[in-house]
Amino acid sequence: MATLSGLTMQELETLSSKAIAAKANAYCPYSKFRVGACVLTKTGEYIAGANVENVAYPVGTCAERVAFGTAVAAGHQDFKAVAVATDITPGASPCGMCRQFMREFTPPSFPVFMYDGQGNYAVRTMGEVSSPFIADSLFHIAACLRTVGNCSD
């Protein structure tokens, strides 16, 4: 059976589709930056999350932390992979806070699949994920909003 980063193709397909679908549940009225995430537990459960903003920006929660937090609250602490989906190209890397949060439960070899708005992905390990979410990412969002009204078009 073919595998990618230790996942079967069926696992990867399910993981990606759940992360992409989770974007629809994002609450992001301020930034319009939708993020969906899905974590696959070692027991085979898929747990999705979406970003939840608050007018007081530091109070919001990223999709990755929603997914991992929900999984941990359900009793999971062993994971196979995570997928993160955004509407931008290239897809966004988890922010520093999310990387720190995920690293609490994952080894450096843990695969992180990052999906863009067209469903293309890059995969890195936790040890390799070093492209931070930076100001340029926000400039890209602003350009999307000026051009098409929102980054999901």
Shape: globular
Instruction: List the uncertain runs.
Output: none
* Content-based structural category: alpha+beta
Might you state the CATH topology name?
Cytidine Deaminase, domain 2
Number of helices: 4
Rounded Rg = 15 Å
Q: Encode the helix/strand succession as letters.
A: EEHEEHEHEEH
> How many structural domains can be distinguished in the coordinates?
1
**Percent helix:** 25-40%
Query: How many β strands by DSSP?
Result: 7
Strand content: 15-25%
Distance N terminus to C terminus?
Answer: 36 Å
CATH architecture: 3-Layer(aba) Sandwich
How would you explain this protein's 3D organization?
The chain is α+β, with helices and mostly antiparallel strands and 153 residues long. The chain has one domain: Cytidine Deaminase, domain 2. Helix content is 31%, strand content 21%. It is built from 4 helices and 7 strands. The strands form 2 sheets. Strands 4-3-5-6-7 form a 5-stranded mixed β-sheet. Strands 1-2 form a two-stranded antiparallel sheet. Strand 6 and strand 7 form a beta hairpin. The relative contact order is 0.17.
